[in-house]
C-alpha cells in the first residue's frame, strides 16, 4: 500500500480542487490519501463524491492541518479522522479562518509599505474560494517578480514568521489542539516539526511534553527534512512512543513536491485508523478498506 497523509486542495492553499486531488492521487498510484486542508473541512464532500468515478480504488482519510503557536513558534498539527461537527473544535477552526482575511490584508499593507506593488484584489483572486493564507500572497510576489518561487517568499525578508511583512493570526495552543481533536475522536500528528527552513522550530523537550499530553505521532519523512533530520526524528519517535509518518505535503503546482513523494508505513496507518473514533476512512470502489 502507498499512503500519503498530508495534502492540500483549493479549500485552503492548494491548486487542485478536492476532486482533482483525489483523481491525481489515484493516477499517482496511491492507495490512501489524506485531505488535510488548513483549518477547514470544506473539501470533504467534493473529494468523497469523486471517489466512485476513479479507475482504481483509493481510500480517503479526512483530516485538517491546524494552525498552532507555542512560545512564539508556529506549529502545524495534523488532525485525522475527527468528527467535523464536534462543536468546540469546529468553533476554533472558524476563529482561525475568520482571522485569515484581515491578517492577509494587513500583510499586503506591509508589503506595500516596503514598496511592493501587490494588491489585495490580486491576492483574493489567487485564493479564490480557498482559505486565504501566506502561500497566496507568496504567489502574488512570484507573479510580480519579487521572488523566484513560493518557497523563496518564506524568508525573514518577506513572509516567514517574524519577517518584515509577517502578521500574527489567531492560532491554537498545540496542547489545546490535541485536547480538542481527541475529544472529537481524532488522531494528532505534529507536522514537519524540524522544518528549519520555515523559521524557528520547537525544542525536543516541547515534543516530549506534547507526547505526554496525548500527541499520537510526528511527521518524519517530509520534503523539508533532510536525511540526518529524519533519522533524528525517527529516533525521537521511538524514544517517545510516537507514530512516525511520511507525507508529501502536496499543494498542486504551488510547491514542487509530488503526491506520494514520501509515504507512511501501512502498519502506522493501521494504528491511526484503530485509534480514531470520530470518523472512518472512506474507501472508493475496489479500494482498500479500513486497516
Number of helices: 9
Return residue spans where pLDDT drops below 50 for at least 5 consecutive residues: 286-291
The portion of residues forming beta strands comes to 15-25%
**SSE-based structural type:** alpha/beta
- Main β-sheet description: 8 strands, mixed
* Radius of gyration computed on alpha carbons: 18 Å
Quote the average pLDDT. Answer: 94
Please give the number of β-strands. 8
Overall morphology: globular
Percent in helix:
25-40%
> What's the order of the H and E elements?
EHEHEEHHHHEHEHEHE
Report how far apart the termini are: 11 Å
Characterise the protein shown here.
The termini are close together. The protein has helices at residues 18-27, 44-50, 87-113, 120-127, 134-143, 174-183, 204-213, 227-240, 266-275, and strands at residues 3-7, 32-35, 59-70, 73-80, 187-190, 217-221, 243-246, 282-283. The chain is built from 9 helices and 8 strands. Helix content is 36%, strand content 15%. α1 packs across α2 and α4 packs across α5 (134-143). 49% of the residues are buried. Mean pLDDT is 94; it is low at 286-291. The chain is of the alpha/beta class and 291 residues long.
